[in-house]
Amino acid sequence: xxxxxxxxxxxxxxxxxxxxxxxxxxxxxxxxxxxxxxxxxxxxxxxxxxxxxxxxxxxxxxxxxxxxxxxxxxxxxxxxxxxxxxxxxxxxxxxxxxxxxxxxxxxxxxxxxxxxxxxxxxxxxxxxxxxxxxxxxxxxxxxxxxxxxxxxxxxxxxxxxxxxxxxxxxxxxxxxxxxxxxxxxxxxxxxxxxxxxxxxxxxxxxxxxxxxxxxxxxxxxxxxxxxxxxxxxxxxxxxxxxxxxxxxxxxxxxxxxxxxxxxxxxxxxxxxxxxxxxxxxxxxxxxxxxxxxxxxxxxxxxxxxxxxxxxxxxxxxxxxxxxxxxxxxxxxxxxxxxxxxxxxxxxxxxxxxxxxxxxxxxxxxxxxxxxxxxxxxxxxxxxxxxxxxxxxxxxxxxxxxxxxxxxxxxxxxxxxxxxxxxxxxxxx
Length: 428
Fold this sequence. Notes:
The protein is mainly alpha-helical. The chain folds into 3 domains: 91 residues, Orthogonal Bundle (Fumarase C, Chain B, domain 1), CATH 1.10.275; 270 residues, Fumarase/aspartase (Central domain) (Fumarase C, Chain A, domain 2, Up-down Bundle); 52 residues, no CATH class. Helices cover 62% and strands 5% of the residues. It has a two-stranded antiparallel ribbon. A two-stranded parallel sheet has the order 3-4. Strands 5-6 form a two-stranded antiparallel ribbon. The longest helix is centred in the N-terminal third of the chain and has 37 residues. The chain starts with 7 loop residues before the first helix and ends with a helix.
């Protein structure tokens, strides 16, 4: 992923240096297990444990000769090991015993980094929802004014969606945090299963139960679909901010620096560019998810069609998801809110949103539904056309109403508040 959409704590996990460091660790742990079984001499183990992680440049130099990255890595890894000891490196293993076990370890670490960002986003959303629980605004359905709600209620919905993403990611982490060191077709023909148990235990990984040389790729598909769903949830949040930021609405605004410039041609513009960026990144995550489904069906025990795909989509998807989530938390934490503008929006439509409450009162008073609906609708249409305020027009229809206040619609708001407070307490 390009540096513009990368944060170092995630991007560094996917560097070539980090990959070769993890490969080196797998090889060292496997050799250690072989020594514990008495299959590698202790002096050789001591020599191998002194090996250095090979440089990216050195591996690339060997790969130009061999056209095989794993063999190039092993050649570079063994360069400073005495030849009599180097022969014990990679004993009984095949390439993807190394690659997939190291990948499982990297994915586990990457999931942990991402989860920290998602948990932060959840916490920021909960805090802002509680802070704006009483900030009344107009709710909209189909993009049209509906009934009053509060900004806190809106943000609570996003908080619970993020909480579901936390749980999906934790489940996906457990599925991708696996390894296999089982030989050429996964039968352990030339390697004792103890080696796999030892290496995976030391790396904090589970074991692929029926290996075919590689870890099953449906695991990665599950993870990237969790990322795509997380991205869609962030996209929904960002879309709401964009809609509420429009010039004719302006109920919220992204926080701006003193030197902010929104347009090269129009100095007055205050564009919701951070939100728009989050929406765009969600599209990438959906694309990556579909690609991992293509990797599930390999030929027989394995082929190599998945490899080139994974080199791109796995690091890119994790980096993008982490960047998007982190920036979403920044957006929410710094969101500028205009309660007076929200209240004006509630009060500035002639009171027509009270129509459902008036209709309910008429029905409760025994008025026939069609008659009640048409009378209320006529008054609402008149108010929307500027013929007068809703209450006055209702009286013209022979309907006397009690004072109309937005709080009429929030009488059971404490039910949702308690759920939100429970989420806050669980998160802490």
